[in-house]
Recover the amino acids of this structure.
């Protein structure tokens, strides 16, 4: 027999927490672990723009035949417009090619496998800390992982000098994983001049940026959030982008994202992209259609696009309000520690600075679930659950 020797895998640090949350029978429990947007009533609704697009698709779709390996063509075009803007020279000069892929995770995995199989780039630098699944994805694709410092626990801010110092140790051809916006888990992003410096460092040291872009529109705005990516694309000859529409279209279970390859010429990108397609063919052959049809239908229709933009704005603004309310409510509960940095962070997450022991206490004594690193999903907070959360945090800090 071969299965008895297989070891039990450790629970996933984020999804394992959701399993524990579901099994918890306490009535006032709150899950601030996984990055899923909740509205004021605590549910994760289907966007109106998505429902309308689905009605259109249902009425017009006339075949379930296979898609090509790279997915829905119209979708791949609109992905590039969202990433770079339609007028960007990477798009105009046809230096980018995009393949639809299953979510941000699938896109990262395709990118990593393509790189390992076809290039000399076998090492990837990721921020410390980073999204827990990065290690898993890149190890599964046999990339070696190095870390660059990013976060300063004393200031609850970024440590840009340390980031530069660590990346200056990277060798030509090494990959650098960059969070396009709404850094997960810290919620701390680079500003324009810092992006410029990172772009120049990559150019000078011949490092290849791989953008993980899972939160476009959750930070400042759809265009503003692409600033870093566009600065880097303006500067370096080659990069990759793995983007996801799980969060900004609320299409979590449709598994919709894309991998985009940018090379120095149209000819080079076409040649390299043929190997991206080969990687996909040997993995899941070709992607499912529904999520891509939803996104491309919305972005091709001016009214639906405007509706989607307003729905995304509403989600972004609700999270920002929860950040302010969280800081105020902690104060009102008598917490003297300064948590004001939380209202300056971007996106769904905040790095609270709570210790592993405090996180355990929150779960065991108060049924408030957050990730062991102290990362809190602000997107899961509502006016209703805020008092429960803040009272519990005040108690564990007391
Ligand atoms: N990248 C980051 C930084 C994320 O936080 C997530 C999801 O939480 C993803 C990628 C993956 O997104 P998807 O669910 O589309 O695979």
């Amino acid at each position: 027999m071969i299965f008895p020797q297989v070891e039990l895998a450790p629970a996933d640090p984020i999804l394992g927490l959701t399993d524990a949350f579901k099994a918890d029978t306490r009535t006032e429990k709150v899950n601030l672990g996984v990055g899923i947007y909740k509205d004021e009533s605590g549910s994760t609704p289907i966007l109106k723009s998505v429902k309308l697009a689905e009605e259109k698709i249902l009425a017009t779709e006339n075949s379930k035949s296979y898609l090509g390996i790279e997915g829905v063509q119209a979708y791949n075009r609109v992905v590039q417009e969202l990433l770079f803007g339609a007028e960007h020279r990477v798009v105009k000069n046809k230096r980018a090619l995009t393949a639809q892929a299953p979510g941000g995770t699938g896109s990262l995995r395709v990118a990593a496998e393509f790189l390992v199989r076809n290039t000399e780039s076998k090492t990837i630098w990721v921020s410390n800390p980073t999204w827990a699944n990065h290690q898993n994805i890149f190890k599964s694709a046999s990339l070696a992982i190095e870390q660059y410092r990013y976060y300063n626990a004393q200031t609850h801010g970024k440590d840009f000098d340390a980031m530069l110092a660590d990346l200056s140790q990277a060798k030509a051809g090494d990959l650098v994983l960059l969070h396009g916006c709404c850094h997960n888990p810290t919620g701390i992003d680079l500003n324009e001049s810092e992006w410029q410096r990172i772009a120049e460092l990559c150019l000078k040291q011949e490092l290849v940026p791989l953008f993980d872009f899972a939160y476009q529109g959750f930070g400042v705005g759809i265009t503003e959030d692409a600033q870093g990516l566009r600065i880097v694309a303006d500067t370096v000859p080659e990069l990759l982008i793995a983007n996801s529409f799980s969060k900004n279209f609320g299409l979590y279970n449709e598994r919709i994202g894309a991998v985009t390859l940018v090379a120095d010429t149209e000819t080079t990108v076409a040649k390299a992209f043929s190997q991206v397609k080969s990687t996909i063919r040997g993995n899941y052959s070709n992607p499912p259609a529904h999520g891509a049809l939803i996104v491309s239908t919305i972005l091709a229709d001016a009214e639906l696009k405007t509706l989607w933009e307003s729905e995304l704005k509403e989600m972004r603004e609700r999270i920002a309000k929860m950040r302010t309310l969280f800081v105020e409510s902690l104060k009102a509960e008598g917490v003297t520690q300064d948590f004001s940095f939380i209202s300056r962070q971007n996106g769904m997450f905040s790095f609270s600075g709570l210790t592993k022991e405090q996180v355990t206490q929150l779960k065991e004594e108060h049924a408030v679930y957050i990730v062991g690193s102290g990362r809190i999903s602000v997107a899961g907070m509502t006016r209703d659950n805020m008092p429960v959360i803040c009272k519990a945090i005040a108690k564990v800090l007391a």
